[in-house]
Structure formats: structure tokens, C-alpha cells
Specification:
Length: 240
Amino acid sequence: MKAFLAALALVSAQIAAAHYTLPDLIANGTTFADWVYVRTTQNHYSNAPITDVNSTEFRCYELDMNATPGETQIATVEAGSTIGFKAVRSLSQSSPVDNTFYHPGYFSAYMSPASPAANSPEAGTGQSWFKIWEDPPVFENGQLVFPSTSISEITFTIPKSLPSGQYLIALHVASSVGGAQFYIGCAQLNVINGGDGKPEPLVSIPGVYTGYEPGILINIYDLPANYPGYTSPGPAVWQG
């Protein structure tokens, strides 16, 4: 068994100055080098987002959807352990790299049992993904307060009851239909010492979003009257 783990950040398309990649896996107390366990993405030089939630590239945004998985190593981690991503943001070709998230955003993490292996192009291509974590904004004093601002790392826990097997990881950013920005990075994992949990509900990626969800189709700087608070896109979190 293998799976993918995905993190999602949603922001206003009005802010486009800062783009990201998520090349570094955080696991076993170590932040690993670029693209060792994370599949090299198409934006590894440009840092540009993907905007089509229905594209097959929305799953992992690989540089080469067939070759890149096999060129990426698989990290071994324990169920119940903390893993994550470190962001890389280049301000311009002539300036230093700034790794903090400039955009405010919503994060969520997904996993998917898959076959034949974590480093195969076929991994995670069916209705097998489930959400294990999210970090939504809080609605306070008439505005959304996002946890993502001025951080450079995203970490979360693999459910202890997750069955042992192989896995991946990703990050995204968004706002209006066609203008929503998604940043993706899929890391390949082999989870050991797992349990007998049965993750649900299951979704497909692409397919998990239409682009019209309230948590995606939103201008965070111009909230509608009587705004009820942020609604996370996608399925409920599987607590494990």
C-alpha cells in the first residue's frame, strides 16, 4: 500500500508577487535537501502556480508525470510521527531566497493508498485520497486571520492508525475561478508501524474541487455582507 499527502494553501489572487515551491520534506527530525523525497515540480524554476483544478497535473504537478516519480526517493517514517514541507520562495533572479509564506492561506493535508509503489506514475490516480489535517483561518472582527503568514514550514501528524505502506506530499494557493493559485509538492513516503484504520471519506485528485467552493471562490480582502466564516473546501478530516 502507498499513499499521497497533500497540503493546500488558499489566498487572494490579488497578491501575485510571491510564488513558491515545496521541495524539502521534513521527517524524522530532519529537513531534507531539495527534491530528494519530493517530486520535482514543473515550477521548480519559475515558482509559478497551477490554476486548473481539473487538470491531471493538479495531483502532483510533476516536471515529467511519467519519469519524475521513479527519479524520486522514498522516505521511511512511522505512523503517528510529524512530517511536513519547507517552502522556498525566490523574490527575483537577482535577490536572495526568502522562505517565508508571504500569502495568507488555508492549509490541508491529504493521503491516498496507491499502487504499485510510491514512485510509480499510477499512484493516487483513483478515488482514494482522504484528508488528514487542515489549518483554516479564523474569522475575527470582521476579517479572516490566516495561520500561514510569516511561516516557512508546514508540519502535521500522520494518524497512528494509518495502515503501513508507501505515500506522497503537496502544497497549493487559490482565490477566484481561473485565477486561483495552487502550489503543489508531492513527497514519497513509506509508512511503518501503522494500524488498522479505515480512512474516509475518499475523493479523487483531480476531482476533489470544482473551483466554485466557498473556500476557494473568495476575495479575502472584500468579504461579503453577513459573512458567516470560512468554509474549508474538500472532505472532512479523517481523525484516524
